């Protein structure tokens, strides 16, 4: 057994060789990201090591697969159920009240002077004019 150990070569590294990293250096950032010594700083709507992904709030990024003419990847983000918007940042429930009420327990609680299941009716007129523009 001792003869086997003696036959194996021994590799000694100096301290300068031991600190050499085999990681691939970061050379550029995509989507107008800024390269710093600590990595990429991504502009709004982007994330990832090289700023290659979309910063989807409630969903998954299609990343480099995004293609506006694709059947499956025609959006930057694939939103989770109940979310919409370019970055899946808008609740589907918030759009159901037309911006004139809030969704509470699956139904709209309309703001003052609005009524209807989707807060789409104005309830007050001033001199024959709708007070809220509807």
How many helices? The count is 3
Q: Number of domains in the coordinates?
A: 2
What is the string of SSEs from the N terminus onward? HHEEEEEEEEHEEEEEE
Class inferred from helices and paired strands = mainly beta
The CATH topology of the largest domain turns out to be Laminin
What average pLDDT do the residues reach?
78
What is the number of E strands?
14
Helix content: 10-25%
Uncertain regions spanning at least 5 consecutive residues = 1-24
Signal peptide: 1-18
Domain EGF-like: 77-88
Protein name: EGF-like domain-containing protein
Keywords: Signal
Describe the structure.
Residues 77-88 form the EGF-like domain. Keywords: Signal. It comes from Plectus sambesii. Residues 1-18 form the signal peptide. This is EGF-like domain-containing protein. The structure is a single chain. It contains three helices and 14 strands. It folds into two domains: 27-92, Ribbon (Laminin), CATH 2.10.25; 96-134, Ribbon (Laminin). It is mostly beta strands. A two-stranded antiparallel sheet has the order 1-2. The chain has a two-stranded antiparallel sheet with strand order 3-4. The chain has helices at residues 2-7, 15-18, 92-95; strands at 34-36, 39-41, 46-47, 53-54, 59-61, 77-79, 83-84, 90-91, 101-104, 107-110, 114-115, 121-122, 125-126, 129-130. The chain is elongated, with a radius of gyration of 29 Å.
Question: What topology emerges from the helices and strands here?
Answer:
Layout: H1 2-7, H2 15-18, E1 34-36, E2 39-41, E3 46-47, E4 53-54, E5 59-61, E6 77-79, E7 83-84, E8 90-91, H3 92-95, E9 101-104, E10 107-110, E11 114-115, E12 121-122, E13 125-126, E14 129-130
Antiparallel strand pairs: 1-2, 3-4, 5-6, 7-8, 9-10, 11-12, 13-14
């Amino acid at each position: 057994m001792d003869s086997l150990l003696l036959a194996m070569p021994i590799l000694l590294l100096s301290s300068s060789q031991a600190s050499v990293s085999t990681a691939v250096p970061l050379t550029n950032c995509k989507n107008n990201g800024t390269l710093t010594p600590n990595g990429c700083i991504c502009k709004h709507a982007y994330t990832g090591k090289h700023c290659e992904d979309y910063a989807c709030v409630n969903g998954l990024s299609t990343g480099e697969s995004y293609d506006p003419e694709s059947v499956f990847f025609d959006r930057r983000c694939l939103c989770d159920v109940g979310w919409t918007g370019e970055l899946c940042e808008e609740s589907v429930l918030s759009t159901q009240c037309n911006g004139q009420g809030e969704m509470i327990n699956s139904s709209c609680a309309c703001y003052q002077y609005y009524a209807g299941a989707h807060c789409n009716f104005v309830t007050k007129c001033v001199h024959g004019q709708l007070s809220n523009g509807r």
